[in-house]
Amino acid sequence: MTSNAYPTTQTIHTIGILGGGQLGMMLAQAALPLGYRCVFLEDNADCPASLYGTVYSSEQLDDFISTADVFTLEFENTPTDTVQKLSALSKQGQKKGMFPPPIALEVAQDRLKEKQMFNDLDIATVPFESVSSKAKLDAACQKLGLPIVLKTSRGGYDGKGQYVIKETSDIAPAWQALKDAVSGKGSLTPTPAPLIAEGFINFSREVSMIAARAQDGQIRCYDLVENHHHQGILAKTHAPAVGTSQLFGQAQTAITTIMNHLDYVGVMALELFVSKDARGHDRLLANEIAPRVHNSGHWSIEGAVTSQFENHIRAVVDLPLGDTDNVHPSIMVNVLGEYPSISDVLSIDGAHYHSYHKSERADRKIAHITLMPNDVTDLEKALGKLVAVLPNKVGLDKKQSESKK
């Protein structure tokens, strides 16, 4: 490639992404129109991102580093030692940056640290307790009251690594199922860490806010969206979440406080519960952060002025952030396990299909579809048509049939 392939003022040509899944793929898709190439550190050579750039295995870390000018990631369980190394190179002036910073991963990889950070920043959460023994689990159940959710504090995603304790007879099997995480044995987590017991709260819905923070501290927030899960995996997202305008300020303040506290750069998602305060008013409880682009923000590719992926790239290469306004209400649906007929999907007005180029496997996220019919009153009708042609209906057929009763 000749030296005049880029503007003379452009010092970043290639972005190194830790991970090569669908998030890395969509980051690369957003980077290309801005004039940036991407390379990936990923042990699966046939990963989705391989369509958009060279993939280096973990054994080729030095080659990966030498190829890229600046670094980011697509998954919060990225090894922190790799992120620390890239951050150190940036501080030494050898590279242009590692975004987000290592501290963001250290917090996001540990649910106890995360909840403690929320509380330190006066951001409300569900009540929780650290659990490192059967006796402490008994004490936590007594203090929090049943039911509770017992989770590994490290590792686990999409509903994995957790156990719902509904009655006292569940305590022993819950401890048996998750105790190896405390010692670092088994497959739950390679890093020994206490479990976390979280008290149940009554909430009306789950929402999330996605925001981008630039290197100069500028922050732009997307609308609150409403998320629906099926067996612990995100099934669909409504953007924006209807009737949450009075909660936008709470969410914006919370995510802004977190990002500034961590000196964060890039896109972050904050997952929240909508609950009631003592006076019966809606309030938000923070659940967790994701220090990366997020599944609940996929709608933004078509539905926002600037997608979460483009804004993350802009932040990483130190460009001004783009407008985050919602240009059209939409519903994003995950495709799990088995592909639908693309012809059937695209016969639905306003449907946008995004394949991840993955092989089919039970409960695997292999594509997403965003519905944006021109007439917003047709959204639910379009969703019904989509559910009808999905091989795996991710529970959406049940929700629809129940709503008709």
From TrEMBL:
<dbReference type="Pfam" id="PF22660">
    <property type="entry name" value="RS_preATP-grasp-like"/>
</dbReference>
<dbReference type="InterPro" id="IPR016185">
    <property type="entry name" value="PreATP-grasp_dom_sf"/>
</dbReference>
<feature type="binding site">
    <location>
        <position position="151"/>
    </location>
    <ligand>
        <name>ATP</name>
    </ligand>
</feature>
<feature type="binding site">
    <location>
        <begin position="287"/>
        <end position="288"/>
    </location>
    <ligand>
        <name>ATP</name>
    </ligand>
</feature>
<comment type="pathway">
    <text>Purine metabolism; IMP biosynthesis via de novo pathway; 5-amino-1-(5-phospho-D-ribosyl)imidazole-4-carboxylate from 5-amino-1-(5-phospho-D-ribosyl)imidazole (N5-CAIR route): step 1/2.</text>
</comment>
<feature type="binding site">
    <location>
        <position position="229"/>
    </location>
    <ligand>
        <name>ATP</name>
    </ligand>
</feature>
<feature type="domain" description="ATP-grasp">
    <location>
        <begin position="115"/>
        <end position="317"/>
    </location>
</feature>
<keyword id="KW-0658">Purine biosynthesis</keyword>
<comment type="function">
    <text>Catalyzes the ATP-dependent conversion of 5-aminoimidazole ribonucleotide (AIR) and HCO(3)(-) to N5-carboxyaminoimidazole ribonucleotide (N5-CAIR).</text>
</comment>
<dbReference type="InterPro" id="IPR011054">
    <property type="entry name" value="Rudment_hybrid_motif"/>
</dbReference>
<dbReference type="InterPro" id="IPR011761">
    <property type="entry name" value="ATP-grasp"/>
</dbReference>
<dbReference type="InterPro" id="IPR013815">
    <property type="entry name" value="ATP_grasp_subdomain_1"/>
</dbReference>
<comment type="similarity">
    <text>Belongs to the PurK/PurT family.</text>
</comment>
<feature type="binding site">
    <location>
        <begin position="198"/>
        <end position="201"/>
    </location>
    <ligand>
        <name>ATP</name>
    </ligand>
</feature>
<comment type="function">
    <text>Catalyzes the ATP-dependent conversion of 5-aminoimidazole ribonucleotide (AIR) and HCO(3)- to N5-carboxyaminoimidazole ribonucleotide (N5-CAIR).</text>
</comment>
<keyword id="KW-0547">Nucleotide-binding</keyword>
<dbReference type="Pfam" id="PF02222">
    <property type="entry name" value="ATP-grasp"/>
</dbReference>
<dbReference type="Pfam" id="PF17769">
    <property type="entry name" value="PurK_C"/>
</dbReference>
<feature type="binding site">
    <location>
        <begin position="156"/>
        <end position="162"/>
    </location>
    <ligand>
        <name>ATP</name>
    </ligand>
</feature>
<dbReference type="InterPro" id="IPR003135">
    <property type="entry name" value="ATP-grasp_carboxylate-amine"/>
</dbReference>
<feature type="binding site">
    <location>
        <position position="111"/>
    </location>
    <ligand>
        <name>ATP</name>
    </ligand>
</feature>
<dbReference type="InterPro" id="IPR005875">
    <property type="entry name" value="PurK"/>
</dbReference>
<keyword id="KW-0436">Ligase</keyword>
<feature type="binding site">
    <location>
        <position position="206"/>
    </location>
    <ligand>
        <name>ATP</name>
    </ligand>
</feature>
<dbReference type="InterPro" id="IPR040686">
    <property type="entry name" value="PurK_C"/>
</dbReference>
<dbReference type="InterPro" id="IPR054350">
    <property type="entry name" value="PurT/PurK_preATP-grasp"/>
</dbReference>
<comment type="subunit">
    <text>Homodimer.</text>
</comment>
<keyword id="KW-0067">ATP-binding</keyword>
<protein>
    <recommendedName>
        <fullName>N5-carboxyaminoimidazole ribonucleotide synthase</fullName>
        <ecNumber>6.3.4.18</ecNumber>
    </recommendedName>
</protein>
